[in-house]
Amino acid sequence: MRLGYPLTVKPLRPLLPLLLALGLVAPFVDKPPHIDDPNFLVLARGAALDPWRPHDILINWQGTTERAFDVLSNPPGIAWWLAPWVDAPVVVQHLVMWPWLILLAWGAARLGEALVGEAEGAAMLLLTSPILLLAAQALTPDLPLAACALAGLGGFLTAGRGAWAFALLAGCAALFRYSGICLIPLVLFAGWQRGRLISALPVILPTLGLALHDQHAYGAWHLMAMTGFQSVSDTPRELLRKGVAAVATLGGAALLPLALAHRRGWIGAALGLILGGVGVTLSSQTGVAAAATLLTCAAGGAGLASLRLSTPADRLLWCWGVGGLLFLLTLRFAAARYWLAFWAGPALATLRLRPPRGAVALACGLQAILALGLSIDDRAMARAWADAGDRVATLGVGQLSGHWGWQHTLESHGWRSLEEDARPEGLYAVAEAPWPQEPDPTACLTPILRLTLRDTFWGPRVHSAAGGGNLHAYLVAGKPPIETYAPWTLHDEPYDVVTVYTPCEAR
């Protein structure tokens, strides 16, 4: 399974996975704040104002201005990390995320050494994963989460007396996303397997410290406050939808179906195809949307089929992958990035099937190409909203509906987010795709400007209602919302339509 390189390259071989990942991330360091980036920048501003209580800052992220403690369902780790850079140029903000990618690369190699018997191929497979490379271009907790998980567990499995420090590092994943708490039983299980359970116990400390911090800072543990916030999609239909989306996003954006080199992979692909058919039927998908769901579910099924219970290493990876899948069903919605705490489990299990060296190299190459295409489209979408916001801001100052980078850009020009069901006053700008809040239904509004944000890239789309793909969630805004499963698709519909209004009496 060892990848082959020319003799002149061999001295650099251990660094090649990291260098390739940095090369795929570097062209996008100018990407404007996008999707969830703005809410973490708001949280970072909260940390800059009060490092002990970052969640006390106010934010309008669901149509109503409220305390971040009540609506942002993540711990404060990323806010503390970004706080010194909250007013820095966006290029600087992206660059300060790179240390996490370096740490993750080290951890990926250690995991490969411990669980596959070979560091290089494992690191290359993990560092070319599209969801990882997209996370490395974002200002979200996902990259630090994955870095703590991989470096912590990888270091714990390969270290000697200092294993406790790596257990502590793995536990720090919970400071960035609450899914990091799932590392606690995983590291404890690994410690039990290897006869070093005492060394594994520090994995608990960051979560314990965070709970004590929250109790002192807010009078409540934020995780418990977010339990009700997350538990709003637990009907049988929504659980099934999240399950289909979880399998599709694993196969479409986390791990290409390398397991098809083994018979288990074909069985898993067949089961995934059946699951995809359930999703297609459930959401009445046709055409490109149905094809995207079926193909990505088949790929995800192949990846999950690589998980086995044969050896202690297999059982550890099985717990990582299956436990992660079950955790994803408890969340408010499905998104490809939510696999970042868990995708290394099925990825490394795939390598334990001993696929041919050429198949590993091909999978890594295809992942890198797909990641590049998705990155180009994601930046184009981010840039479209930023440019539209700059254009609208030339008309003056007003109110806006919609979130993500659109909201961030206009708020940086002094605009205010409309409160749900409020009557707009003066200029009012609406973006249709980033979940705009509705104004007072009795408000009389006159359109004065309409902008169509066109897609000029021929490659894959990370967000398309007509194509039935969404890397960032499993719904696309609409009336009614459009249900999706695949993390990407092929389509050329516009990214969005922006309309600027004035009140009728202002004509």
Account of the protein in words:
- The protein has 20 helices and 11 strands.
- The protein folds into 3 domains: 1-227, no CATH class; 238-355, no CATH class; 383-506, no CATH class.
- The strands form 4 sheets. A 5-stranded mixed β-sheet has the order 4-3-5-11-6. A two-stranded antiparallel ribbon has the order 1-2. Strands 7-8 form a two-stranded antiparallel sheet.
- It has 507 residues and is α+β, with helices and mostly antiparallel strands.
In short:
With 507 residues, the protein is α+β, with helices and mostly antiparallel strands. It has 20 helices and eleven strands. The strands form four sheets. It has a five-stranded mixed β-sheet with strand order 4-3-5-11-6. Strands 1-2 form a two-stranded antiparallel ribbon.
Write the layout of secondary structure elements.
Blueprint: H1 16-25, H2 37-49, E1 58-60, E2 65-67, H3 77-82, H4 90-95, H5 98-116, H6 119-127, H7 130-135, H8 142-158, H9 163-171, H10 183-193, H11 197-200, H12 205-218, H13 222-230, H14 236-254, H15 263-282, H16 287-305, H17 312-328, H18 344-351, H19 357-393, E3 399-401, H20 404-412, E4 416-417, E5 428-431, E6 445-453, E7 463-464, E8 469-470, E9 475-476, E10 482-483, E11 496-503
Parallel strand pairs: 3-4, 3-5
Antiparallel strand pairs: 1-2, 5-11, 6-11, 7-8, 9-10
Helix pairs in contact: 1-5, 1-6, 5-6, 5-8, 5-18, 6-18, 8-9, 8-10, 10-17, 14-15, 14-16, 15-16, 17-18, 19-20
